[in-house]
Amino acid sequence: RQGASRRWIMEAVEESLTRLKTDYIDLYQPHVLDAAVPREETLRALDDLVRSGKVRAIGEAATFAKAEDLVASLEVQQAHGLTPFVSMEAHYNLLVRDAERTIIPELRRRRMSLLPYFPLANGLLTGKYRRESAAPAGSRYEKIPALKGFLDPDRHWPSVEALRQIAV
Length: 168
Description:
Blueprint lengths: L3 H17 L4 E4 L10 H13 L3 E6 L6 H13 L5 E7 L7 H4 L1 H6 L3 E5 L22 H4 L13 H11 L1
Parallel strand pairs: 1-2, 2-3, 3-4
């Protein structure tokens, strides 16, 4: 398995550059990394992209969306002279705010940026889903079983309904 992450990252960037018809990517931030590939190998691949000029800056993936994983990556980068992260992707929105206690303080200390994923709570904050209705056919809630917890009537709906009253 060693090398799979490096090859995959390099190929993904090459394909993106071709598709975007550009010579470089401003910020490359993988969303999911292979946990079976050693962290240092992945960080070296990201560093190679920056050093080659194909990528200008890199960010930590959501796969490691914990402050201790971010710190571990930054320590490896510093110990080996690798390009440091400038940002981190983490689950963060009006309904899921754990990052305020766990990740954001570390990002502030290190003067890094947060890129939230699921900023609209998987569409729950868009108004297209209703508590009294089933998820629309073909929606991500229907396709991805792990997301069904977001539609649990006791979990997020009270907050969504309170927000709806303010936003309307």
